[in-house]
Amino acid sequence: MDPKKEAERLIKEVEAEEGVTLDAEFREKLKNEIAEKIRSEIERKRKEIKRKVEEEEEYFVRFSLNVRLQHLTLAVGVILLIITGLPIKFHESKIAELFFDLIGGIQVSRILHRIGAGLLIFVSIWHTLYIAFTKEGRNEFKELLPRKKDFLDFWQNIKYMLGKTNERPKYGRYSYIEKFDYWAVYWGMVIMVFSGLILWFHNFFLGIFPKFVFDIAKEAHSDEAMLATLAIVIWHWYNAHFNPHVFPFNPTIFTGKISKERMLREHPLEYEKIMKEKLSREGKSDER
């Protein structure tokens, strides 16, 4: 609908009914006002329809508050480590010099880096306790263990990408991509935490181990940090947020909810499992 044409039609109807002809200047002003009212009403209706669709859309709880807070703590810690760590690694570059000038020097960067390290250590302990002492944590850990199906899904996805098949792999609660993300963090944390502690408390550790242990820790920390940064920026951010299906932002890790549409597309086996459990519960309820 063209608001101006509709406004013109309404004015003509009124003129015909009343048997009058409006002044040209007043007529144009009135037409613009009516057209603007029509536009506002159309926009209001669109927003109302969109809101109703969103309210009616079915959502599933994917992540608990505990998991979301762990992820938030990890994200803040890692981003702080990247922002402060890369300038220390490439301290001779002009960009690093500019960064140190902005924050007040390399010592400030080191302090912020250790705050990020503290968050990383804290969330690693938190996650370990979550797995060991909560039912939800143990169930999540079991779901994240690599299985034969993950290798089959990987091969199926390769064939799909190469156009050898039209069928995508069907994932359960976690795909092999998400499992890779999870275990990469495990591997990275072990290296980063232990090598970082040796660098942080070097006077203590040099009194226990020979210097080559310190040198190994320094190289391991530096190289793993670079690898982790590239993995997060290229691999994780693309799969989590820049993927065309969710671009420009995936809210699930923050809201804990996933839409039915995305559940069917990304985790169809998980959806089937939830529906079976729901039918089973309803059946038992009817028997009572």
Helix and strand topology:
Elements lengths: L2 H16 L5 H33 L2 E3 L3 H25 L4 H10 L2 H28 L1 H10 L3 H14 L14 H25 L1 H5 L4 H32 L9 H4 L1 E3 H7 L1 H20 L1
Antiparallel strand pairs: 1-2
Helix pairs in contact: 1-2, 3-5, 3-10, 5-6, 5-8, 8-10, 12-13
Keywords: Cell membrane, Coiled coil, Membrane, Transmembrane, Transmembrane helix
GO molecular function, one term: heme binding
Organism: Candidatus Kryptonium thompsonii
Please summarize what this structure is:
The chain has 288 residues and is an all-alpha fold.
Explain what the structure shows:
The chain has 13 helices and 2 strands; from the N terminus they run ααβαααααααααβαα. It has 288 residues and is mainly alpha-helical. The protein folds into 2 domains: 3-56; 59-280, Up-down Bundle (Fumarate Reductase Cytochrome B subunit). The chain has a two-stranded antiparallel ribbon. Helix 3 (65-89) runs antiparallel to helix 5 (106-133) and helix 3 (65-89) crosses helix 10. The mean pLDDT is 89.
The rounded distance between the terminal residues' Cα atoms is 56 Å
Apparent shape: extended
Number of helices: 13
User: Please, what is the average pLDDT?
Assistant: 89
Question: In CATH terms, what is the architecture of the largest domain?
Answer: Up-down Bundle
Structural class: mainly alpha
Report the sheet-strand fraction: under 5%
How helical, in percent, are the residues? Answer: over 70%
Radius of gyration: 29 Å
Spatial order of strands in the largest sheet:
1-2
Count up the domains. 2
N-to-C SSE series? Answer: HHEHHHHHHHHHEHH
Looking at this structure, what is the CATH superfamily of the largest domain? Transmembrane di-heme cytochromes, Chain C
CATH topology of the largest domain: Fumarate Reductase Cytochrome B subunit
What's the story with the biggest beta sheet? 2 strands, antiparallel
CATH class group of the largest domain: Mainly Alpha
Instruction: Provide the low-confidence segments as ranges.
Output: none
List how many beta strands DSSP finds.
2
Keywords: Cell membrane, Coiled coil, Membrane, Transmembrane, Transmembrane helix
Subcellular location: Cell membrane
Membrane topology: Multi-pass membrane protein
Pfam families: Ni_hydr_CYTB
